[in-house]
Write a structure and sequence with these properties.
With 127 residues, the protein is mostly beta strands. Helices cover 0% and strands 50% of the residues. It has no helices and eleven strands. The strands form two sheets. Strands 2, 4, 5, 6, 9, 10 and 11 form a seven-stranded mixed sheet that branches. The chain is globular. The protein starts with a strand and ends with a strand. The relative contact order is 0.32.
Length: 127
């Protein structure tokens, strides 16, 4: 059974940094694309970053470009999101996801039924 478990969330002051981790397990295939998504208060789910696990190309939403960095440890089935220069607007529940194998890794615009999803982890940035 596919399982994605996030860790590393918490509270931080504006300008600070946090690193999220996601442990993937139970896949019968090697996911070709992994991503991070967030749900801010009063907003729908939005894509933050994604990474092509074959070529290593990464994609970012413009709101986090230059501040967040997505990376992976394929050997241990881990996905990371290093978040720096955090602002209050980054406060959200962050979830990791693995794209379905029949879809191509082309960005962060994923529909709910396009992937497997973790439960999410709260990140709170105080201003």
């Amino acid at each position: 059974q596919v399982h994605l478990a996030e860790s590393g969330g918490g509270s931080v002051q504006a300008g600070g940094s946090l690193k999220l981790s996601c442990q993937a397990s139970g896949f019968s295939y090697r996911p070709n694309c992994l991503g991070w998504f967030r749900k801010r208060p009063g907003n729908g789910r939005e894509g933050v970053a994604a990474i092509d696990t074959s070529g290593g190309r990464s994609y970012y939403d413009e709101s986090v470009e230059g501040r967040f960095n997505i990376s992976k440890d394929s050997l241990n089935n881990l996905l990371y999101l290093q978040m720096s220069s955090l602002i209050h607007e980054d406060t959200a529940v962050y979830s990791c996801a693995a794209l379905r194998p029949d879809l191509n890794c082309t960005g962060v615009a994923w529909s709910r039924d396009h992937a497997y999803w973790g439960q999410g982890n709260q990140v709170t940035v105080s201003s």
